[in-house]
Amino acid sequence: MMPIVFTSFQKQKTSNAPATKTNEIRCLEHDKPGSFVSPWDPSTRTRITEQLNGMKKQFPDLRAVEAGIFGDTGFASMMVSATSEDPHSHTGWWCNDKSALAAFRKQVLEKYKTVKELNTAWQTSYPTSEDVTFPKGPSDGSKRRWLDFIAFYRSGISGLVQTNLEVLSQLYPKAIRSVLIPAEEDDIKSGTDLASIMSTAKSHDGVVRAVGLGKSGFASSASGELGRLAGGAKAQGANLWFENAPSTSGIDIAERIFTAISLDAKGWVDSPDNVLKFK
């Protein structure tokens, strides 16, 4: 039976902390900083661990914890602040910092072993590994170079998911530990690797929580984004939960619960307002 969980449960959302000048994330398009730390900066894991340990001291007995992966929203997606206070915010390639470039060079050299082999695969002519750069787009060089860049870019969010769940599983072993994913995120610039995220959630006894249930009817949900997420979760053996959108009637809620059960959801998150209004 699918468990029903309401957002009145005591819950704390962790999130990627504001950046400093030494570890800020920067966009590739304009070389301007965003408000959050780079996923590839070596200090990021330490910062996350310190923050979560601080949260544990303040909230020692949480029943549910939402692992805030990136930005002020906490989605497992490459986002920057959605607030007007952010000096630079847009959908883009957020990897133009020194830590990201160093990590990219390391990752591709681990794959190809030598610069010569890398040049052969990419059809490039880099003299040394220190000369390797990010492609400017899918048409900048070979398809292999672009695909290697996409794999690297996705590793940023996947790495943050793993770090958060590793620490949270130690601090809150009995709590529900969820990773928030947008149900309608298809932009490759989001950096979201659903297969990797779902696999990581499973290995750390966490759940993947999709937001967006109720924006369309059953047929559209089952054949669209939610159906894709449900299929991915089943393939990875992950626990997929759905979060309900604001409802207009009790029948509306019943239809959405039916949709969730039909898509083999393992859990349901709803707002107290929905429940009290249509009880």
What features would you describe in this structure?
It is built from 9 helices and 9 strands. The protein has 279 residues and is α/β, with parallel strands linked by helices. A 7-stranded parallel sheet has the order 1-9-8-7-6-5-2. A two-stranded antiparallel sheet has the order 3-4. A hairpin with a 6-residue loop joins strand 3 (24-26) and strand 4 (33-37). The chain is globular. The model is unreliable at 6-13 (pLDDT under 50).
Integer-rounded radius of gyration: 20 Å
Query: What percent of the residues sit in helical stretches (DSSP H or I)?
Result: 40-55%
How much of the polypeptide forms β-strand, as a percent range? Answer: 15-25%
Q: Tell me the overall shape.
A: globular
Q: Give the N-to-C terminal Cα separation.
A: 20 Å
